[in-house]
Design a protein that fits this description.
two-stranded antiparallel ribbon
């Protein structure tokens, strides 16, 4: 209770109120795993190679150098060329997966029991007590003489 010089006394009436704070906690995690697997793959490639076809035709000219063939003694050597396939495996990006964290806000209701104080006013002697304002909703005036009749 608090008292002042002007003879007014004040009594504090308390009520508990709910106050809610939020605290972050780790609710879990999402783990993304990549799995490597194998599957057969084929690709068609055109390959060129030289083959020898022999034919003859009449000729009437002086002997000279030939482009690809050369002589080894009495032999004519004609190089044969073919293409060989060289296969390499190259990583190639075919898709990109976007991963985003998105915060969502939701409303949750918190319910608990709170304590409140209610005033009971018991007059002593020949007094009449009146109350006004918000205290009228939380105060009850009890007249003990009325209960004794």
């Amino acid at each position: 209770m608090e008292s002042r010089d002007d003879e007014t006394t004040r009594l504090q009436r308390l009520e508990e109120q709910l106050r809610v704070n939020t605290a972050e906690r780790r609710a879990g995690a999402v783990r993304f795993e990549k799995e490597t697997y194998q599957e057969p793959a084929s690709i068609d490639v055109e390959v060129t190679r030289d083959e020898i076809e022999l034919g003859s035709r009449p000729a009437d000219r002086a002997g000279g150098e030939q482009d690809a063939a050369y002589f080894e003694g009495d032999l004519i050597v004609v190089p044969i060329i073919e293409e060989r396939l060289e296969v390499r495996k190259v990583p190639y990006v075919v898709e990109e997966i976007e991963i985003r964290k998105v915060q969502r806000t939701e409303t949750q209701t918190v319910t608990d029991t709170v304590r409140k104080e209610r005033l009971t006013i018991v007059p002593e002697g020949d007094l009449e007590v009146t109350s006004n304002g918000p205290v009228a909703n939380t105060a009850q005036v009890v007249n003990p003489e009325a209960d004794n009749r």
